[in-house]
Amino acid sequence: MDVRRPSRATPILLFGLLALIAAALVCYSQTAAFAWDEGFHILTAQLVLHGKKPYLDFCFSQAPLNAFWNAAWMAIFGESWGVAHAVAALCSGIAVALTSGYVHSRFPIVGWRVPGAVVTAILVGLNVLIFRFGGIAQPYGLCLLAIVAAFRLTVLTPDRATHATPALAGFFSGLAAGSSLLTAPVGPVLLLWMCIYNRAGNRIRKAAAFLTGGMIAVTPVLWLWTQGPRQVLFGIVDYNLRYRQSDWPDATRQNLEVLLGAINSGPAVLLILLAAGGLLFMRYQIPTKVDIRAEFYLCAWLSMAIFLYITNVRPTFERYYIFAVPFLSILAVAGLFAASSRLYRADRPWVPIILVSFLVALGLGKDLYDERYDRGWTEMAAVARKVNEVTAPGETLYADEETYFLSRHTPPSGMEEENSHKLNFSAADRALYHIIPQPDLDRMVHDGYFHTLETCKDADFIDEHGFARAYSKHAEVNDCTVFWGFAPGN
Q1: Which of 59, 294, 343, 380 shows its CA 20 to 30 Å from the CA of 483?
Q2: Mind listing the pLDDT tens digit for each residue in 190-241?
């Protein structure tokens, strides 16, 4: 196998492709990108921007760094979901470029470096999960950038005696974990790999530098913890381990359905099969003296750790596996080379690359077409306009998080996170964690506490809680309902 053959292809194609993918991610983020769960993330950023602290002043059930990140950008460019989306999409675009750049610089088959980088950009940038969720207010975009940057830095550490590189790798790992606990396995895996494959310098000092960098990244979390350890521990750890599935009695079934659903996704199956083939190729076909094998093993370690961890989240969702995509894609390039070598010609890379790219693009197009009528920020803006039409500044509002954010009505204490209403603690703990249980919330509605009530829940939920009986007027806007004019027994 000739691993020294120079590439004849020009990288101009790669640079243009990366720019085009970044532009597409940003464009989609400003037009159609939307996920219902991003509502409380972006509302939290808005509350932070106005001086409130997560956990201490309101309930927040996630790690906080992404909320601080979004708040910082909104402080510069304005309180708009478009700002948070654009920044997230750019982070995802940079993550695509970093992943592609790794293949371009490190793939052991030199003649496949540019073609491999091109197909990596396609596999990552046009992946359904990254395209749809990498440009929303949730931490996917920031975390993708952080974990890929941490990976790129970690693979540089074995042959460098400096402590700066592992410290930066630890920083980005900590940034990812401090933004979303879904990336928690990344840091330990990178640290373990770095220690095992270290060849220069003191591995203990490097590990200490890695951990120090991680601690620096999560300093804002530690600062919040010093002010309210119980609230921070509850929001980040307890809620997710003990209470998150309280309204998901079939969480295990949900997880199984998510896994089985991957079978119906052609691009997902293709990516996994190519990645598996790439791992076998690296194990048995690349000469032992080529140190690059260890880096591809790291991609396999990361992919497996993320897969096992996400699969055990209760409940899990398909988009959580987004963080395995960059590392699977790197392995997939090796798998595509191995398949081309056996089934076609290794010296003609563009034919299989065009074929794989077509299949990935086709899968993305089908998914976007299937989701074309889903609710988005444009529809929620119309709901917020109706709410503002019937609600004066200062009047109390019961609403979804998106509507609070768009209408600029500050949610009453305990209304900042809708999912918290499913919890029912003692009076002291409810006050400490800023939680209003749903039964108490219903009593507040029927006592006339809320001038206006907005919900996008279905008619069964509205009937179950008797919202229509408490108000004399209502309007339907984009499958959401706005009630006003308190009139009990109406």
Answers
A1: 59
A2: 999 999 999 898 999 999 999 999 999 999 999 999 999 999 999 999 998 8
The pLDDT value recorded for residue 99 is 98
Burial of 426 (0-12, 13-18, 19+ CB in 10 A): exposed
For residue 1, what pLDDT band results from cuts at 50, 70 and 90?
Answer: very low
Please tell me the predicted confidence (pLDDT) of residue 6. 46
pTM of the model: 0.94
In which band, very low, low, confident or very high, does the pLDDT at 3 lie, cut at 50, 70 and 90?
A: very low
Q: What is the percentage of the chain residues whose pLDDT exceeds 70?
A: 96
Provide the H-helix boundaries in 240-324. 251-261, 266-284, 292-311
Q: Are 256 and 248 in contact (CB under 8 A)?
A: no
Output the DSSP codes for 339-380: HHHHHS-TT-THHHHHHHHHHHHHHHHHHHHHTTTS--HHHH
- Is the Cβ–Cβ distance between 167 and 213 less than 8 Å? yes
Distance (Å, whole) CA 457 – CA 42: 20
Sign for the pseudo-dihedral over CA of 210, 211, 215, 217: positive
The side-by-side arrangement of strands in the sheet containing 397-398 is: 397-398, 452-455, 480-486, 471-477
**C-beta atoms surrounding 217 within 10 Å:** 22
As to burial, measured by CB atoms within 10 angstroms (0-12 exposed, 13-18 middle, 19+ buried), residue 422 is middle
Q: Are 292 and 307 in contact (CB under 8 A)?
A: no
Domain ranges of the chain: 14-370, 377-486
Residue indicated by tokens 């790291």:
298
Distance, CA of 46 to CA of 55 (rounded, Å): 14
Q: Which residue has the tokens 């529809």?
A: 379
394 Rama sector, left if φ>0, alpha if ψ -120 to 50, beta otherwise: left
